[in-house]
Amino acid sequence: MERTFLMVKPDGVQRNLIGDIVSRFENKGFQLVGAKLMQVTEELAQQHYGEHKERPFFGELVDFITSGPVFAMVWEGENVISTARLLVGATNPTESAPGTIRGDYAVTVGKNIIHGSDSPESAVREIGLFFKEEELVSYDKTMSTWII
Ligand code: IDP
After folding, report:
1. Is the ipTM of this complex over 0.90?
2. Where is the Nucleoside diphosphate kinase-like domain positioned along the sequence (predicted)?
């Protein structure tokens, strides 16, 4: 069973989209195993977005993700990493399909509402950056037999 890291960015929190976003992943059939509203520090932002350090928009990215609270989550399910990316939509909202989170709510790449891990390696790294092991809860839902 895979786990992925998803985060409603400050624009999504300010636009009251936490509930809608959680519902989309619940309705799909994935299971929430950890969540918290938190303020990302400059240090955490730089670690999280480390792969973009040399990009011209890095400073903007760090400023944005630290500009207000985010809603950090860990979700579990079969193929959750790649499927969650489909639900999130393409990075640039000019290319994200209607029906995806970014396709439905975002206009510009710098304010694209949500982050989702892009690979198993990123998922492990990002979950470790944002959550302590004891903040994650494994549990069974009887409904899961109707999903997988
Ligand atoms: P992803 O979030 O879809 O995985 P990445 O390429 O990892 O996309 O980029 C991380 C984040 O950096 C994007 O979600 C977006 O908010 C921001 N970003 C990417 N490209 C640009 C850009 O050209 N200008 C401003 N921000 C960008």
Report:
1. yes
2. 1-138
**41, 31 in Cβ contact below 8 A?**
no
Asked if residue 148 is part of any domain, the answer here is: no
Which CATH number goes with the domain that contains 79? 3.30.70.141
Q: What is the distance in A from the centroid of ligand 1 to the CA of 77?
A: 25
Let me know if residue 145 belongs to a domain.
Answer: no
Evaluate: CB of 91 within 6 angstroms of ligand 1.
yes
Q: List, in order, residues 6 or more apart from 94 with CB less than 8 Å away.
A: 109
Annotation marks residue 52 as catalytic: no
How many separate domains does the chain show? 1
The overall average pLDDT reported for the chain is 97
Task: Read off the pLDDT of each residue in 11-16 and give the average, rounded to a whole number.
Answer: 98
